[in-house]
Amino acid sequence: MITSPSYYDQIGGAPVVREVVERFYDRVLGDDDLKPYFTGIDMPRLKRHMVMLLCSVLGGPEPYEGRDLGEAHAGMGITSEHYDKVGEHLVAVLQGGGVGEDILRDVGLVLGKVKSSIVADPAETAD
Ligand code: HEM
User: Fold this and answer.
1) Which of 41, 53, 92, 117 has its CA 20 to 30 A from that of 109?
2) What's residue 40's pLDDT?
3) Range of the domain at 73
4) How many CB atoms lie within 10 A of CB 64?
5) pLDDT score for 89
6) Is ligand 1 within 6 A of the CB of residue 73?
7) Which pTM was predicted?
8) What's 19's domain CATH number?
9) Is the pLDDT of residue 113 over 50?
10) Shortest CA distance to 24 belongs to which of 2, 1, 54?
């Protein structure tokens, strides 16, 4: 039986994921709407966790050992619009890295699934 390589292998493994994550946070921090969320954040640690998360989502061997996404983003008041902007930056960087449509579609699905745990609950933030 012929098994196809994982998305992780198709795009070039951890070195490519690390490059994507660097370019992703360059874009996010260059976006005036998003930059304030990252004030005082330990960026090397955040990048390491994002690399692990992306590697494991793409089928690589690295397990994700960061915090649960809901927990990690709790209390930040992230809006739906800002979430979508972050998602667009990620997709743009992946597209720029020559990642195929099938992978982009799956990343889009994952982004849709985790949105509700990252975006602030309007009921909690209305005061
Ligand atoms: C689009 C989907 C997103 C994914 C997959 C994602 C992923 C992650 C990961 C893996 C971490 C590290 C968790 C840990 O500390 O172990 C993290 C932390 C963080 N994220 Fe996100 N994130 C997303 C969206 C966002 C958005 C929309 C914002 C703000 C606009 C944001 C801001 C932050 C900040 C500020 C931290 C650092 C938290 C801390 O160290 O206290 N993230 N994110």
Assistant:
1) 41
2) 97
3) 7-121
4) 16
5) 98
6) yes
7) 0.92
8) 1.10.490.10
9) yes
10) 54
